[in-house]
Amino acid sequence: MRTPQIRDIEWGRKACLSRRSLMFAGGGLIGSGAVAFAIALGRRTPRDITSAIQAPVREKWLERRHEEIIEPDLPIIDPHHHMWDRPGYRYLLQDLLADVSSGHNICATLFEECGSMYRSTGPQELRSLGETEFATDVARISSLGQHGLTRCCAGIVGYVDLRIGGHAREVLEQHITASDGRLRGIRNGSTWHADPALKMYSGAPRGLLLDPSFREGFAALAPLGLSFDAWMFQTQLKELVNLAQAVPQTTIVLNHLGGPLAIGPYSGKREEAFTEWRKGIREVASCPNVNVKLGGLGLKLIGFTFFENDIPPSSHELEKAWRPYIEVCIEIFGPQRCMFESNFPVDKGTCSYQVLWNAFKRIGSRYSTEEKTALFSGTAAKVYRVTV
């Protein structure tokens, strides 16, 4: 299949265009007429992110804080970002390129599933192929090298509902084909909590990771060379331990530091929540097949309110707030099983890409050269098979 190029996409030739081609170009790389046409074709956004979950992204507010880049030559693989086109909230290739080219040495990125660009027709279990196709088209465009040196979406963590059990393998194989071999793993978010303040984050049934049908589908990952990204609250970490021990041959990547909480039942109880979270992290780290992503601290569930200030936080401020959580994970898992992540555009409601990676570099400054390499690129390269 010929690699699509931006110059091939013209509004006057809309009859020849695929939905995903329009979608990946909709961030300003083609005209607004094509964007409108793409929206009319029917986007699927099954998991809209609202202001209740993350702080709104305000570009003018973010522009009020600029910093000199720390260690600008340090190679970085960003193993976790999303892309979508939602009402009033767009983050597509042009937006990603603006962030990854803002000063840090971002060699490659990995796209993380987010319910974006699903097919609007066809069997339910195959509709998420639209997201994988979309991310693959972005990767093809990026690989041309005409928009910077960063290889955007060099790897893809897609979505297949593993509760389809014995049918999972054939669907996974279709995603591998659709991705031109870029598929690296699958994420099934399992966040669940009965507290009203956390229900808005919950998109999964209670005990998903323990479900027999899910386990049957999960078993198809390792034989295909795929890993599993796990997203949950700290109150569910025991379920991940159970899963990791039951299927030790499958590589698991725990997202966002294991979902530490400071709202809902833990509102005003940060120290208590931290102690419980740390205990859960120790149990998870005892499973050698589990790695952890260091990030996601811009989510409102962690209770930091930098987004309420008149001026965006500095990397010094973020370092002070984030260091306790990140250092616990590095200490317990070890640098070789940890990787920094941007979680953009979600965490962009708290700080810019420049400031976020500066904060991570401040936190990582006390580690050796070998350890820093692991934290910023090595672990991601190993787990997701992406070259620096």
Helix content: 25-40%
Number of strands: 10
Alpha-beta content class: alpha/beta
- Helix and strand sequence: HHHEEEHEHEHEHHEHEHEHEHH
CATH superfamily: Metal-dependent hydrolases
Biggest sheet character:
8 strands, parallel
- Rg over CA atoms, rounded to whole Å, is 20 Å
Q: Count of helical segments?
A: 13
Give the low-pLDDT segments. 1-49
- Overall geometry comes to globular
First-residue to last-residue Cα separation = 26 Å
Instruction: Give the class-level CATH name.
Output: Alpha Beta
Query: What fold name goes in the CATH topology slot?
Result: TIM Barrel
Strand content: 5-15%
Main sheet strand line-up? 1-4-5-6-7-8-9-10
Average pLDDT figure: 89
Kindly give the count of domains.
1
Going by CATH, the architecture would be: Alpha-Beta Barrel
